[in-house]
Amino acid sequence: MEGTLVTFKRLVFGITFLAIFTMAVRASVGYDTWWHLKAGEWMLANRAILRTDLFSLSRQGSAWIYPGWVAQILLYAAFQTFSFAGLNLFTALMVVAAFAFVWCTLEGRDLLRAFVILLAASASGVYWSARPQIISFALAAFFLFVLHSCRKGRARLLWSLPLAMIFWVNVHGGFAIGFLILGVYLCGEIVQLANEAVKAGWDWRTAWDKHKREIFRLLSVSLLCALAVSINPHGPQMLLYPFKTVSIQALQDYIQEWQSPNFHQAQILPFLLMLLLLIGTISRSRRKVDLTELLLVLVFLALALLASRNIALFALVAAPVITRHLDAVLDDKQKELGAAAQLPESAAKWLNLTIFLLLLVASGLKISSSLSSQANQDMIEAEYPVHAVEYLRDVQTNKNLFNTYNWGGYIIWELHPDFLSFVDGRTDLFDDEILEEYLISWRGLAGWERVFETWDIEMALVEPWAPLRVRLESQGWEIDYEDELAVILSSPK
Question: I need a labelling partner for 460 at 20 to 30 A (CA). Which of 42, 101, 277, 421 fits?
Answer without folding.
Answer: 42
